[in-house]
Design goal:
Blueprint lengths: L2 H18 L5 E5 L10 H21 L6 E5 L17 H19 L2
Parallel strand pairs: 1-2
Helix pairs in contact: 1-2
Length: 110
């Protein structure tokens, strides 16, 4: 999917959720990459741009009543966390779950 369309889709989903519930809290991922031997320079650039864009989107879409937070799934992510080219194995699922837990722990204690 073209990069601009991906960003537009993310923004549209956030807008729809905030329209339906102006007090919604959302978490968006700064995506983990696929297996390193499959990450072409083009894919790497695409992922890097989206990782940064997630921070921009989170900042721009956060309102006084609706938080949008980005969660970093790429820092520390390893090929050994993958069962195949893109799907997590048990270790990868634990890594991802811990990242979400760290964010949700702060959200749910409010």
């Amino acid at each position: 999917m073209p990069y601009d369309q991906t960003v537009a889709n993310i923004n549209e989903v956030i807008d729809a959720l905030q329209s339906a519930n102006p007090d919604v809290t959302m978490i968006i991922e700064q995506l983990a990459p696929g297996r390193s031997d499959l990450m072409t320079p083009e894919l790497t650039t695409y992922f890097s741009r989206l990782q940064q864009e997630a921070l921009v989107i989170a900042s721009e879409k956060t309102t006084q009543t609706s938080r949008v937070m980005a969660v970093d799934m790429f820092t520390g992510f390893k090929d050994s966390f993958l069962a195949d080219e893109v799907h997590y194995n048990e270790q990868g699922a634990s890594f991802i779950a811990q990242r979400y837990y760290n964010v949700l722990e702060g959200v749910l204690k409010r």
